[in-house]
Amino acid sequence: MPAPRTVLLTGAAGGLGTLMRGLLPAYGYDLRLFDAVPVEGEPDAVVADLADTGALREAVRGVDAVLHLAGISLESGFDKILRANIEGTYNLFEAARAEGVRRVVNASSNHAVGYTPRPAPGEPLVPVATPRRPDTFYGLSKCFGEDLAQLYWDKHGIETVSVRIGSCFEKPTTVRMLSLWMSPADGARLFHAALTAGEVGHTVVYGSSANTRLWWDLSPARALGYEPQDDSEPYAAELIAEQGELEDGNPDHAGIGGPWVSDPPIWPR
Ligand code: NAI
Fold it and tell me: From ligand 1's centre to the CA of 93, what distance in Å?
């Protein structure tokens, strides 16, 4: 498939959307922006909800690919998750199908496998094929997104890379993030690889930097051409001094999802 140039970026006003608006144009993309709220400094952005199927159809028309980041990014009531993440992602794929868009990069999450035990040092890394164990309704919606992408590949030939993103922020801020962190620059590298790799069908990958304390297998992401350049380790000493090491026997430290198993951050209900 030729390298996509025009990409619809949903969730453009959000944290990750803002980082990618800064980084992806250097890869040659012409970004079309979409979000439920105005995107600062971007008067041409489409301001619409994922529930607005007409606006979505118009927004995807003529783009080469979609980078789908819009949605509720924390735990919430099931009704809100249903509308934004489950129905919203369905609406996005339907719009892509109707308008003939061939490639989607879909933001999944570590919380799709949140109850999966974190491997101890020296144990095998968690493979992509591990059974999904969502830790929240939010994580469950990401499992739905992955299955929806599979359906749209098998039935309609739309190729998707679902990226189970770890934590993409400027810096890791918790000890858990030392294992999951994806630097913004590596995030752009991975999304670029996912947008341009040939013949992906529906591929699920983990998304993080090449962290010394990695918990999961990055080889499916590397197979797309992703070459991570960063490692969270320079932040380790300070974070561990502040917060202590992860403890065996602490249920909030047991799984990939960390404290989300018992105390997920809540999006306003
Ligand atoms: P965010 O909460 O900062 O941004 C999400 C954006 O989506 C917001 O600008 C919001 O207005 C928009 N949005 C929400 N509901 C919408 C709707 N119904 N219609 C249109 N727009 C809507 O989240 P962030 O951190 O930028 O994450 C982006 C994506 O990546 C999300 O899907 C999130 O679940 C996923 N993700 C992010 C991680 C991270 O480390 N930032 C980790 C794992 C997954």
Answer: 17
